[in-house]
Amino acid sequence: MSMDKRVLPPGAFILKGYDYILQQRYIDYPNISFINKNKYNYIVIEGIDGAGKTTVAQLVVSELKRRNIDSELVYEPYTEEIRTLLNRSPDINPIVEAMLFAADRMYLHSEVLSKMLQDGKVVIGDRSFIASIVYQVVRGAPEEFVISINSFAIKPSLIILLDITPETAIERLERKKSKQLLHLEKPSYLLNVRQRYFDVLKSMGIPHHVINAERNINAVLEDVLSVILKNLV
């Protein structure tokens, strides 16, 4: 017997005949009331490993605060327990990895991020659910599965992609002695991740800007700040 699929925006796949579960509220998604608002500032810095996301995100928040703009930094993975587990298992099964990121993201979005946005803060994110749709899928997890388990995620209002070549990424990563490279040390892997970022951002329809991150940090920061300040709502 064939089983049709129905798609519930923004990506949860529910088998035909199971719709009543949602209708009867046996499955209850987080009550994030602001999600239907048209205006909020959740700006995410994305890019392949070595692009400088964390450094740029931290500097952006510092500069926004210096300008008296109420801003906060969030990062993924957020919880220390999941972050530690992922750091200890750099070659973990991609499906397990996707589930761990999704659980961590569920906590961050429902308990932390939603409150910040409700308070009108400008939130700068170091990665988002976009990274899962990129990284875990490149590593072998089914795209539909990764999208589905992240269906609760708050969509960024703006994504800034820091773009560098795989060669530059590997050079930078090798300078981080604490970084366990494994699959990250392969140029072909990073090339696939880089290309998928472009493909996913195009298909998701979320406003985004690509910044050349091959340059010195001051030039990159200046461009990133310029884009953010022009897009605040």
UniProtKB/TrEMBL annotation:
Keyword Nucleotide-binding (UniProt): yes
CDD domains associated with the record: TMPK
Catalytic activity: dTMP + ATP = dTDP + ADP
Gene (name only): tmk
Source organism (scientific name): Fervidicoccus fontis
Pfam assignment, any one: Thymidylate_kin
Residue span(s) of domain Thymidylate kinase-like: 45-223
GO CC term (a single one): cytoplasm
Protein name in UniProt: Probable thymidylate kinase
GO biological process, one term: dTDP biosynthetic process
Listed Gene3D superfamilies: P-loop containing nucleotide triphosphate hydrolases
GO molecular function: ATP binding; dTMP kinase activity
